[in-house]
Write a structure and sequence with these properties.
single chain, alpha+beta, Neuraminidase, 5 helices, about 35% strand
Length: about 425
């Protein structure tokens, strides 16, 4: 009997409590609450929890592609013994992008630029360029011309004759080479300007250009169509190599030579074309293609110089077009295994005309792979930085060992930032 009375009393107290709580909420909702604004705020937040949770779930579902889900079992590694300064860009808000100088070793930020985003939520500032006096050159990839800011974010110049896409690099004179598109009369950049005939059919495709800009004024010093370069050098047949008939070129890097060696001259360019799986050694001074590099690489990016006779680049090792398995295919129960492929970094010796791999075992062991984009940078004789772009993972490899593995944490739980071509700053001093 005593237990029954106890249970009954608890039920009465709970009912009374819920009744009072319901009355308080009703009064707050109707604006007749005797409590102050602060109490009202906390009560409203409390009863709105489910709405907030639902909004949060919906937000995660609709996050732009500039955020990447972080695997629950993701293990970070940081064995870096010295600072590793990098210029990174990411989505800080829907209508804002942040570019910053960060030490990846300590995760410390040394400088930031906040830049408004007037475009879509997924549009990116890609491969921004740090110039002297902490000035910054950037664009919204494929959307705008180039803009130069000072260290405080004030505009020094804008160049809207061309639209920048993919990479930016500085030459020996301190001027800027850019992958670009030409602005047309209707103000569009990416249009189907190229044309050829195949079996009496007209094929229209996107032309790419390369541009050299004066770093102090933004003046265009050189501007040339890739289609014209190929045609004038008897290489138009390369356009037929690509599976992407409407975008066969897809220029992604223009790397200037900073000095003269027996194998290239100062001012020469190494041009990387993803959809052609080819790299061209081009001399703007004479409009001559000196060499076409093809072979054991596919959909490559990011050409760099290893020494006076060797270049290296990130080999995506991927199809130009992603191959989806069709369930209409008749698949044999007996398979002929062809291997397990991943991305890698390849060197090419201009002297001996020979390809080789860098850190191939580490790429295979860690299954480092990105279908599009991707970067690599030799930090010294033994350290290789890699941006596995699609997954958003940054790596540093040393003698086949992982000494750094991380992703840039974002403001959205369970997600990290998509990297936008992390630029290693070799000579930066805070």
């Amino acid at each position: 009997m005593k237990k029954l009375l106890t249970y009954f009393s608890i039920v009465v107290i709970l009912l009374f409590t819920f009744s009072v709580f319901g009355w308080v909420i009703k009064e707050v909702t109707l604006g007749r609450s005797p409590f102050g604004d602060r109490v009202n705020y906390y009560l409203d937040t409390y009863v709105s929890f489910l709405d907030l949770f639902e909004e949060s779930v919906e937000e995660v579902k609709t996050l732009p592609r500039t955020f990447v889900p972080t695997p629950q079992d993701f293990e970070r590694v940081n064995k870096l013994e010295e600072p590793l300064y990098a210029l990174i860009s990411y989505t800080s808000k829907k209508k804002e992008r942040t570019v910053e100088i960060r030490d990846l070793a300590s995760d410390s930020v040394f400088h930031q630029w906040k830049i408004a985003n007037p475009f879509e939520a997924h549009d990116r500032i890609m491969d921004p360029l740090l110039l002297p006096n902490k000035s910054l050159c950037f664009s919204y990839n494929g959307k705008t011309g180039l803009t130069k800011l000072d260290s405080a974010g004030n505009v020094l110049w804008k160049q809207d004759q061309i639209a920048h896409h993919h990479s930016l690099n500085v030459d020996s004179a301190g001027h800027i080479w850019a992958c670009s598109y030409t602005r047309e009369k209707d103000s569009s950049f990416i249009i189907f300007k190229g044309r050829y005939e195949l079996d009496s059919r007209e094929i229209f495709f996107i032309d790419n250009t390369i541009s050299r800009l004066h770093a102090e004024t933004g003046e265009v010093l050189f501007h040339k169509s890739i289609t014209e370069i190929l045609k004038e050098n008897g290489l138009s047949n390369l356009l037929l190599k690509s599976d992407k008939g409407d975008d066969p070129i897809h220029l992604n890097d223009v790397q200037p030579a900073l000095k003269t060696t027996p194998y290239y001259q100062e001012g020469d360019l190494f041009l990387s074309f993803r959809n052609l799986s080819a790299i061209l050694h081009y001399r703007p001074e004479t409009n001559k293609v000196l060499q076409v590099l093809e072979g054991m690489f596919y959909s490559q990016h990011d050409v760099d110089f290893l020494n006076d006779s060797v270049i290296y680049f990130f080999n995506n090792n991927a199809h130009t077009l992603w191959v989806d398995r069709s369930f209409s295919y008749l698949v044999s129960p007996e398979r002929l295994e062809a291997g397990n492929f991943h991305s890698n970094v390849i060197t090419y010796d201009l002297k001996n005309q020979r390809y080789s791999y860098l850190y191939k075992e580490a790429f295979g062991e860690n299954q480092i792979y990105t279908y599009t984009e991707g970067m690599s940078e030799m930090l010294n004789d033994s350290l290789l930085f890699v941006e596995e772009q699609n997954s958003g993972i940054l790596w540093v490899l040393k003698n086949q060992e992982v000494v750094y593995k991380n992703a840039l944490p974002s403001q959205h739980a369970g997600h990290h930032h998509l990297p936008n071509w992390t630029r290693i700053l070799h000579n930066y001093k805070p």
